[in-house]
Design goal:
Chain A: It comes from Actinomadura livida. Chain A: InterPro entries: Anti-sigma-factor_SerPK, HATPase_C_sf, HATPase_dom. Chain A: Keywords: ATP-binding, Kinase, Nucleotide-binding, Serine/threonine-protein kinase, Transferase. The complex is a heterodimer. By secondary structure, chain A is of the alpha+beta class. Chain A has one domain: Histidine kinase-like ATPase, C-terminal domain (Heat Shock Protein 90, 2-Layer Sandwich), CATH 3.30.565.10. Chain A contains 4 helices and 5 strands; from the N terminus they run βααββααββ. A 5-stranded antiparallel sheet of chain A has the order 1-2-3-5-4, with helices on one face. In chain B, helix 1 links the parallel strand 2 and strand 3. Chain B has a single domain, classed as Transcription Regulator spoIIAA. The model of chain B has no long low-confidence stretch (mean pLDDT 94). By secondary structure, chain B is an alpha/beta fold. The chains are: A alpha+beta, B alpha/beta. Chains A and B meet through helix 1, helix 2 and helix 4 of A and helix 2 and helix 3 of B. Bound molecules: adenosine-5'-triphosphate and magnesium ion. Magnesium ion binds next to helix 2 of chain A. The site of adenosine-5'-triphosphate (ATP) has 23 residues of chain A, from helix 2 and helix 4.
Chain lengths: 136, 120
């Protein structure tokens, strides 16, 4: 699996959420995603960047071009923060569940927009969310 | 933070979103619109998103909030010009845009508002 970096940036303010969208859009377009798939991955990234900012107290994002089984190509995006972490991962993934006054759509909805989704979190340590979308 | 202009066209207010929306801009727009509806006595709000290339849950929720809020002030809201890729993504994200009326373009949105107002 060869991985080529396609961008990295901190997420520490509201305007960074917009910048993450733009960075992911550029990476997805140059990787060759269809317009619909570009829109899906940018929307997923927007949800996750906001979670990193609002729930994680800020963090960073890294984007890589990745090659999977049978030579398929895709984009992998990793969001990391050193915030409070998520005490109950299963609950966090339930559609409609929010610890604040959100719709609780961010994680559950994002999961549907990508091909691979992984959520790692340690209370008190932080949270890492990794998503992959393959080019069709 | 950028400000989104609100234009008055007859009995309606037109908001055409031409920038990549950040969360604070969304909040400011909701407040500006509420003020404008009261000030102008507008009977309808048209939100043109034909230039918007992504709608996430935060932006989607804004449409529902504006629709509910304007209804309380006796104005109808219609969202026009949603791009197909945005619509497909919203469905998969699971956002239902409750209470938000939509039309394909500005002209049809105006017609929808006109007909819902009738002769009132
Ligand atoms: N990076 C994070 N750090 C800590 N907690 C998180 C993080 N991301 C998500 N969570 C927790 O998981 C819950 C569910 O997240 P999700 O994005 O689905 O909903 P939300 O952000 O509350 O609402 P929405 O995204 O619909 O506005 C959050 O309410 C929060 O408690
Ligand atoms: Mg969220």
């Amino acid at each position: 699996m060869t991985i080529e970096p396609a961008g990295e940036m901190p997420i520490s303010g509201n305007d960074d959420v917009v910048r993450v969208r733009q960075l992911v859009r550029t990476a997805a377009a140059s990787a060759g995603f269809s317009l619909v798939d570009q829109t899906k991955i940018v929307t997923a990234a927007s949800e996750l960047a906001r979670n990193t900012l609002v729930h994680g107290g800020g963090g960073s994002v890294g984007i890589d071009q990745t090659v999977g089984d049978r030579g398929k190509h895709g984009l992998r995006i990793v969001f990391t923060d050193r915030g409070p972490g998520i005490p109950d991962l299963e609950q966090a993934l339930v559609e409609g569940w929010s610890s604040g006054n959100g719709l609780g759509l961010g994680l559950s909805g994002t999961r549907r927009l990508v091909d691979e989704f992984s959520l790692e979190s340690e209370p008190g340590e932080g949270t890492t969310v990794t998503v992959v979308k393959w080019i069709r | 933070m950028q400000q989104i202009p609100i234009l008055k066209i007859g009995r309606f207010l037109l908001v055409s979103i031409q920038i990549d929306l950040q969360d604070q801009t969304v909040v400011a727009l909701q407040e500006d619109l509420a003020d404008s509806i009261v000030k102008t006595g507008a009977r309808g709000v048209i939100i043109d998103i034909s230039a918007v290339d992504i709608v996430d849950s935060y932006i989607g929720r804004m449409f529902s909030t504006i629709a509910a809020m304007s209804r309380l002030m006796d104005a109808e809201t219609v969202v026009v010009g949603m791009r197909p890729a945005v619509a497909i993504t919203l469905v998969e994200l699971g956002l239902s845009l409750d209470g938000v009326r939509t039309a394909l373009d500005l002209e049809q949105g105006m017609r929808l508002l006109e007909s819902s107002l009738g002769d009132r």
